[in-house]
Write a structure and sequence with these properties.
Number of strands: 4
Order of helices and strands: EEHEHE
Number of domains: 1
Distance between the termini: 14 Å
Strand content: 25-35%
Strand order of the largest sheet: 3-1-2-4
Helix content: 10-25%
Number of helices: 2
Radius of gyration: 11 Å
Amino acid sequence: MYVVYVNHPNNKANVHDTDCGKYTNRRRDRTHNGYWSETFESFEAAWNYAKRTEKRVLTNALCIK
């Protein structure tokens, strides 16, 4: 499963897998800096969501297992 963190100050949308520590240790889903999206079954669906945010920078931070 995948999720997208949308960061407003950095104009960035970053795809994470749901096992990633940045996601599992998050304090809130929404802050003044951004928000975590809903979860997606596939990387492609998460990546498409990230593209639709129209953020300038698109990245992925998939944890290596």
